[in-house]
Amino acid sequence: MARIKGVDIPNNKRIEISLTYVYGIGRSLSNKILSDAKINPDKKAGELTNEELDAIRDEVNKYMTEGDLRREVNMNIKTKMEINSYEGTRHKKGLPVRGQRTNRNARTRKGKGKVVANKKK
Question: In the beta sheet, which residues pair with residue 14?
Fold first, then answer.
């Protein structure tokens, strides 16, 4: 298994898909990295040579991924919580941040539904 940015990428998948296992790399960025490194996206990850892997690693290092990106995202959330913005207060309460409904969904964040006693139909 090849390691890129500390992540083991699967050998049996196309390199275009395997790169998306790295946090911060999606399909479009994966294709951009492969085109800059001049590597065929249809190649399996296990078939890559060491030179090709080094070229991919050099291209990936140009972008913020994995630990740096996670740290920045968490710092942005903490900043919103400190300044008491609307999004920050929703993060503190463990509620949906982006305007979703909460009366009939978002149970995974809010907890189990409350039972109302003696409710007549």
Answer: 44
